[in-house]
Design brief:
The chain is mostly helical and about 150 residues long. Helices cover about 60% and strands about 5% of the residues. The protein has helices at about 15-20, 30-45, 55-75, 90-105, 110-135, and strands at about 1-5, 10, 80-85, 140. A two-stranded antiparallel ribbon has the order 1-2. A two-stranded parallel sheet has the order 3-4. A hairpin with a 5-residue loop joins β1 (about 1-5) and β2. α3 packs across α4 (about 90-105) and α4 (about 90-105) runs antiparallel to α5 (about 110-135).
């Protein structure tokens, strides 16, 4: 976890990746949402498209909850802060999807499919960590987004 002088925290990449796997954590609201997002992505993989609307609505609720938490907890960015291209909630949702795909890749898929998904997940997790670091340093802001 990354900690500021104010004592508020945003989870780091490794603990976030563990939350996607359902591993125990300290009950942080972002980690709770991340674990549920991973479960929803796994469920969505097995759900017909015509029945996926409730899953997607719940995902949107969780993304908004993450974004609200970050707005309240993170330091106010400087006026010169660059705006990130997506919200933290959106990024966590994408990470949850790739995490699910990496851990539940189809049986019999070539090793290259597994490897490529792990590389994407690792790159995205690095992007998440850079964003968290930038948010805490006040050099990055998040867009206002409606899901």
């Amino acid at each position: 976890m990354l900690q500021s002088a104010r004592g508020s925290m945003l989870p780091g990449r490794d603990v976030l990746l563990a939350a996607f796997r359902g591993l125990p954590h300290d009950g942080h609201p972002i980690l709770d949402a991340a674990g549920e997002l991973a479960q929803l992505h796994a469920l969505r993989e097995r759900t017909p498209l015509s029945e996926s609307a409730p899953i997607d609505r719940r995902r949107a609720q969780l993304m908004r909850a993450i974004d609200r938490w970050v707005i309240l907890a993170a330091p106010v960015p400087s006026a010169a802060a660059d705006e990130h291209c997506e919200t933290l909630g959106g990024l966590v949702d994408r990470l949850a999807r790739h995490s699910t795909q990496a851990f539940v890749a189809p049986a019999g898929a070539p090793d290259s499919v597994h490897h490529d998904e792990w590389v994407r997940l690792d790159d995205l997790a690095d992007s998440y960590q850079r964003l968290v670091d930038d948010l805490w340093a006040g050099v990055r802001s998040l867009p206002a987004h409606t899901y």
